[in-house]
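User: Show me a protein chain along with its predicted structure.
Assistant: Here is one chain, sequence first, then C-alpha cells.
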Amino acid sequence: MIDDPYTEFTRADMILRDWLALDRTVLANKRTFLAYARTSIALIALGIAFVKLIDRRFFEISGFILMGIGMVVFVIGLREFASNTVRFKRLVLKEKVLEQQILDEEREAQS
C-alpha cells in the first residue's frame, strides 16, 4: 500500500475534489472503526448471554470463546483506525506545508 498517494502529483495538479476525497476517506475510516466496535460488542454480549443463560458446558465454552473473539475484533479495529489516522494526519500536514510554501513564494514574488 502506498503511504502517500499524492506524491506523483504536484500541488497545481490537485483540485478540490481530490482533497475532498481525503475527507471522505477519513469519515470512512471512522465508520469502519464503529463497525468493528459494534461487531465486538455484539460478540461479547452474545458470549455473556451464552455463559449466563444456558447451563450447558458447550455453550459456556462457546460463550467464553465469543467474548475472546469480540475483544480481538475490537483490538484489530482500534489498531487499523489508529494506523490509518496517522497516515491521514501526515497527508494533512503535508498539505499545510505545501500551502505555506506557495504563500511564501507568492509573497516573495510580490516583493
